[in-house]
Every structure is written in structure tokens, then in C-alpha cells.
Amino acid sequence: MESTLSPASLTAAFADLPDPRCLSRVSYPLPAILAMTVAAILANCLSVLAIAEWGADQSPALLAALGFPGGKTPGQSTRQRLFAKLDADAVAALLTASFAAVAQPGEAGLQGVAIDGKAQRGRLRFPGGGGPVHVLSAYCHDRGLVLAEEPICAPVSTDKGEAELTVAPALLRRLDWHGRVLTGDALFCQRNLCETVHDAGGDYLVTVKEHQRGLLQDLQFFFDPPSDEPTWLHTDLRTTRTLDYGHGRTLELRTLTASTDLNGYLDWPHVKQVLRIERTWREHGVTKRWIDYAITSLSPDRADVDTLLRLKRGHWAIENRLHWCKECKDVTLREAASLIHAGHGPRVMSLLRDSALNLLRLAGIDQIAATMRSHSRHPDRAVTLVTHPLTRA
Predict the structure, then answer these.
(1) Mean pLDDT along residues 193-202
(2) Which of 235, 239, 266, 354 has the largest CB neighbor count within 10 A?
(3) Of 196, 211, 20, 10, whose CA–CA distance to 101 is shortest?
(4) Domain assignment present for 380
(5) Which residues contact 226 (CB under 8 A, 6 or more apart)?
């Protein structure tokens, strides 16, 4: 395999990282080690040991394409010691910058970015390991890319929601919000977060629940007043519906209703519309119903009801396509079972897993597990992804 390293590739971007090793004793280039790690993950080698064994099995030509001209690669212990010492913040910043150029909103704008947290449960058994167990991620709805992540260094005993809120402002500051819409569950319906996104040139669409009791009561009274109370005199109600099948459910009807009637009443920064989202479906012969309320800084002329429903539904891509489903980090990449816990190693490996998933999404690949199995038989395809330019599918 000939070396076709592109200056716009992920491998070339790794050259900008500071190397924590004593340069006089360096045997393997840092960019080559990181590139080989991502390529091995793409080839379904998920532990540090498996990654090292994968490198030892590759041909000299393929290793040269990754940056190992001598045909030799580092072993497991060398790799683990290096990852423990790497500046994880620098790795995170580099990956955010690398993927930002190919994840910019299109001319129409309004690109949804979901934020949500998760734990790498395998590390919970190492309370003194030094690496953070939880992480808060920003995920691009339409591109399927992890744009940024922020480690949560609070003690494991700290409330998960409270810990996520402490790092959320730092995560938001990592991104360019122009043309983007923050989507989040009720935890992230916070004044300071909405202000931060708006001041950065973006918008928000967040669910409202008991975390904001007064705001929730206002929305409930507006859309669903008690029978013994006077009905609100609505002057603006716009509705859209979608009907879906599948996932063990039949006839899942979603109805979104939006209004501007509360704009002058609600004491909330930059709110332009209030939303009611009702879901009804049949599951195992039983009809079920769920109602959510939300607020957004998007005015009707910038986001009609169909756009609002698309953004609301798109938020769950961070769970369905990244965290929990079979084509995700927890299952396919087995991140939740990872026992790496020394220094910055856990976070560095998490960032490299994000990079592998991002490369697959950029290549237009949705069948993650099947593609990784294919790469295990054709490693040159995995190497191509990390050495060729980062471009939209």
C-alpha cells in the first residue's frame, strides 16, 4: 500500500499535538501511534492489547502509510503509558477543530446539536484511577458527528445531573453556535445555558419539566388548562403531525403545537415560541400517550412547526445513534466495559473512539458493526479513512 497521506487528514492533524515524551528517546512518532489506534478501532480491535496486536500483524507498506517507516509498532505497555501522559484537553480541542470544518451548517442553517452525558461504567470500580468516569458530549443531529466533549471530574457520589450542569458552560464554549440550535432534555433548561448559546449566535430548543416548575405550570395552563379554569384566548396556534411505524409500536402519532402567545408573558431569556408535543401509540395492544412541553428561541419566520418537530426528534440521535444502540460506543465499541483508568488514558481512548465513529459517518456509513468487521478483513480500508481528507459524504 502506497503512502497517500493527505495534509487534510486526521493523521496529519495529529502532528499538531504536543508530545509529552522525551524527544531523545522517542522511537515511534506520536501522529503514527494515534492514527494506528484509530485505524485499529475501525478494524474492530477495541482494547489496547488488541490494537497493539493488530499493528504487529500489518504489512510494512500499510504501516508506512500510517507513519511507521521501519515496519515496527509500539506494544501495549508503551501505548498505555503514552496515553496516560497525553494532554487530553489538547486532543479534544484538535478533534473539535478537525471535524468542525466538515460539520458546518448548510445555507439553510438550523443544525441541531444535542448535548447529553454518559458514564463509562467499567471504570466505576477504580475510584482512584485518576481519569474522569463521566463525560458530556455535543452531537450533531444531521451529520452524526461528535463535535466536542467535556470530562466530568466530580466524585462518583455527586448527582449526575448536577455534575453535568457544572461542565455544560465549558462544553458550549468549545463550539461555534452560528446557525446551530442547542437541543437538550429538561436538565439543560437553564437560564444561563440558554443565554450562553444565544450570546454565541445560536439558538436553543429545550424540554421543560419539573426542574422549572413555574415555567412548566405556565405551559400546562396555556395548552391544557384544567376543566374548571377559563380557557386561554389563543391567537396563534400552529400544528403539524407525523405518523410512524416500527420499533414494536404501531401507529405512533406525534403532534407538535407551537405558539407565540406567551412571548410577552414568560420570564425567560429570548423565548420566541412555546411548544406542546404529544405522542400516542399502540404497544402490545395498549394505547399509550405522552405529552412534553418545550421552549425555543427560534421565531416562526426562522423555524416553522415542521422544522421544530424535526429538531425535537433529532435530539434523540445522541442516544439512538451514539450512546446506547447497537451501532454505538457502548455496544459496538464496548466503551462501557473499558477498564482503562490510568491518567488521561480513559479520556484519550474515548476521544479516539469518537474519531473512529466520526470517520465512518463522514464516509456515509451507518452499518458500523458490519463495516468494522469488514475492515478487520481489509485493513487497508481502515487506513484509508485516517489518511485521506476529512470531507462530507
Answers:
(1) 96
(2) 354
(3) 10
(4) yes
(5) none
- 78/21 Cα distance (integer angstroms): 11
Residues 6+ apart with CB under 8 A from 382: 39, 40, 42, 43, 375
Same domain, 16 and 75: yes
Domain encompassing residue 50: 10-88+340-387
Burial letters 24-37, b for 16+ CB under 10 A, else e: eeeebbbbbbbbbb
Q: Pairing relation of β-strands 111-119 and 180-184?
A: parallel
For 11-41, the pLDDT digits (tens) are: 999 999 999 988 877 889 999 999 999 999 9
Q: Is residue 125 part of a domain?
A: no
Q: What are 45-90's pLDDT values in tens digits?
A: 988 899 999 999 999 999 999 999 888 999 999 888 899 899 999 9
Instruction: Please count the other Cβ atoms lying within 10 Å of the Cβ belonging to residue 297.
Output: 22
pTM, two decimal places: 0.85
- Burial of 87: CB neighbours in 10 Å, binned 0-12, 13-18, 19+: middle
Q: How many domains does the chain have?
A: 2
pLDDT in tens, 244-268: 776 555 678 899 999 999 999 999 9
Contact assessment for residue 261 and residue 235, using Cβ atoms and an 8 Å cutoff? yes
pLDDT grade for 274, boundaries at 50, 70 and 90: very high
